[in-house]
Amino acid sequence: MRPLNLVRPSLALLLAAGLSTVVTPAGAAHAAAATVSASNSPITFTSSEQLAPGVTYGSFEVSTPRGVTVGYLLTADLSKNKVSLDLLHPDAVAQRQVISSMANDQGAIAGVNGDFFNNAETHAGVTPTYSSSGPEIADGAELKFAVPNAQRFGPGLAPGTSTRDVFGVGVNGKARVDTLSLDGEVRSKKGTIALSGLNQYALPVDGVGLFTSEWGTASRVRSTCGTDTSRSDPCSTHTYEVTVRDGVVTAVGQAPGAGAIPADTQVLVGREGGADTLDDLVVGDRVQVGEKLVSAGKPKLTFAVGGAPILRDGAPLAGLDTKTAAVRSSAGVSPDGRTVYLVALAGRAPASAGFTIAELADLMRSLGADAAVNLDGGGSSTVAVREPGQAAATARNSPSDGAERLVANGIGIFVGRH
């Protein structure tokens, strides 16, 4: 099936420059439907409103070979000095919460759901951690790194992409799609051990992962399950865990543990070869543990959420799925990094046909995005909005589950936060 052939000029420009200028006394602007013609599939913008200077929200419809798809678009102009993006997240990495609650707890004016996450398990006796597959950076704090590609939940990745890819914003205030790597090590008199994980539900085979207080109380056993080629492979039986407090090893053991990690404590978990290297450490050893996430692009990211790239340099990536239509969410950015487009489709219903990933890429391009990522979809797809005069954000897209799904993270739009 051919992807939709959508066109520029962008719907986002239509929303920002035209429809959003009509404002009712209540602050909502539901304008007469406007249509942008496309060679194959017209896109009809059915409503819009300005949530704040530089932030708009609207709904649209797109005709597909399967019927009409209904979607919702948030645009954020990051050149406005009071508009910013940041990670919506629960109190712990290994935890979940609905998007509207995260937005309200953190003071976001609007947001969409984020990355795919560990929401199911095939391993006997292992409980899902509900942590995301990709990296997380929130307000400059590096919360977690990425699991191996084969351990990811969600549809297949486009060739040349990985779980380390993110949608984020740099210290210069510009959004971009980038790739993160982990630079970390454990140093002691007995040698140096490279880190291959940070607060993630799956470590690479032979790897050593670091868990901090940000992880939460969830069991760390899941990090040693599966392999680099299969998420469902058995859990490793060759593991080791080392607890470090204030730079001194305070406990060692064969099996990964669970429970809250104090702020002054770090827990190292190794599997296979990584377990062998950790086994050299004993109680009383002094160690230094350091880690940082390094972006391929510049400058340093202050916010990042995992996402599967689908659009680069204004063109859909090769190898995107053209057959499976589903409810989807996406984040995209304009060529100058200043305008962000957040999209969530309506929950599955007779009137909403969904998009293939190739169609989603085409849609994001038509909105004006130069780069974009696919976010978690299905029942996770959510757009939450707090309109002017409202006390709280609420979900607007009738999520597929009939109510908001508990998810690992999201992308929030903030006004006047910094």
From TrEMBL:
Pfam families given in the database record: NAGPA
Keywords from the named record: Signal
Signal peptide residues on this chain, from the entry's feature table: 1-28
Chain segments annotated as transmembrane: none
Annotated Phosphodiester glycosidase domain residues: 239-414
Protein name, as recorded: Phosphodiester glycosidase domain-containing protein
